[in-house]
Amino acid sequence: MPHGLSLNDFLGLGLIVFLLGAYCALSRRNAIGILMGIELMLNGANINYIAFSFYGGGSARYDGQVFAIFVIMLAAAEAVVGLAIILAIYQNLRTIDVDAAETMSG
Amino acid sequence: MIAQIVFWLMAFLTVGSALITAFSRNIVYSAFALLGAFAGVVGIYILLAADFVAMVQIFVYIGGILVLTIFAVMLTQGIGDVHVSNRAVGTIPALATTLIVGAVMLYATLKTPWYAAKTALTVAPTTYGIGNAFLDTYVLPFELASLVLLAALIGAVVISRQETRE
């Protein structure tokens, strides 16, 4: 290995970032906090993609990086739409507590 | 040797910032800690010879998504509410779910015999190869992704326009 680092180091880092994002998304009441957890999860998955692209090598060298660029692109689109929805909810309800947005229940 | 030092520095930056994002009770602290997480990931990408993806991460994630998130955080909270703006609910089920999922994924990561490359791994600029891949092998997902971006753009404008109509 040219670094002295192995694939498992990077996969472990991606796993830790993904788990922290999952905890952030699961235990938040603030809607923007949940979106931040989703962004952390996507970053963890991207670290895995880039690590596989480097350590897999060979002719499929760029596949992981192309996929990571697609993930970044779709994360941007999703963050834009999600934040637009959150701002619209805030203008109507004056709060972004996800427990308060319950007009469809019951 | 240098690469290992850089890796551990970037890993501590990323994981430390992600810890602040996940466990902080103040939404503004969480949003600014996300900057540290994204910057650490940029360092990891450069270590893995993904220079173009690192620059895309800086431009799109830090310069786009993070700025948008901080805008939204600043626009949607009462000034007197900053200290309790991000209370955590259901920490025990979230922690239990995260630990169980993490244990399963860790087992899968360590036990799977990942494919080891037989050719030498080179550290080279990747922009040329990625550009060719986007227009040669991946042209269809590339065009569809631009359609997705168009739809997201139109959708965001429509969602944020309706309040000023009435």
What this model shows, in words?
Chain A is mostly helical and 106 residues long. Chain A has a domain at 55-95. Chain A has 3 helices and no strands. Chain A has helices at 7-26, 31-56, 63-93. In chain A, helix 2 packs antiparallel against helix 3 (63-93). Chain A is elongated, with a radius of gyration of 18 Å. The relative contact order of chain A is 0.13. By secondary structure, chain B is an all-alpha fold. Chain B is built from 6 helices and no strands. The mean pLDDT of chain B is 87. At the A-B interface, helix 1, helix 2 and helix 3 of A face helix 1, helix 2, helix 3, helix 4 and helix 5 of B.
Summarize the structure.
The complex is a heterodimer of chains A (106) and B (166). Chain A has 106 residues and is mainly α.
Output the keywords:
heterodimer, A: 106 residues, mainly alpha, 3 helices, 73% helix, 0% strand, B: 166 residues, Four Helix Bundle (Hemerythrin (Met), subunit A), 2 domains, 6 helices, globular
What is the residue-mean pLDDT of chain B, rounded to a whole number?
87
* Helix content estimate of chain A: over 70%
CATH architecture of the largest domain in chain B: Up-down Bundle
**Rg over CA atoms of chain A:** 18 Å
Shape of chain A: elongated
Termini gap of chain A: 59 Å
Describe the main β-sheet of chain B briefly. none
**Residues in helices of chain B, as a percent range:** over 70%
- For CATH, the homologous superfamily of the largest domain in chain B is named as NADH-ubiquinone/plastoquinone oxidoreductase chain 6, subunit NuoJ
Spell out the helices and strands of chain B N to C: HHHHHH
Q: Biggest protein-protein interface? A: A-B, 75 and 86 residues
Q: Give the number of helices of chain B.
A: 6
Report mean pLDDT of chain A, rounded to a whole number.
Answer: 87
Helix-strand category of chain A: mainly alpha
Class of the largest domain in chain B, according to the CATH hierarchy? Answer: Mainly Alpha
Poorly predicted regions of chain B are none
Q: State the low-pLDDT regions of chain A, or none.
A: none
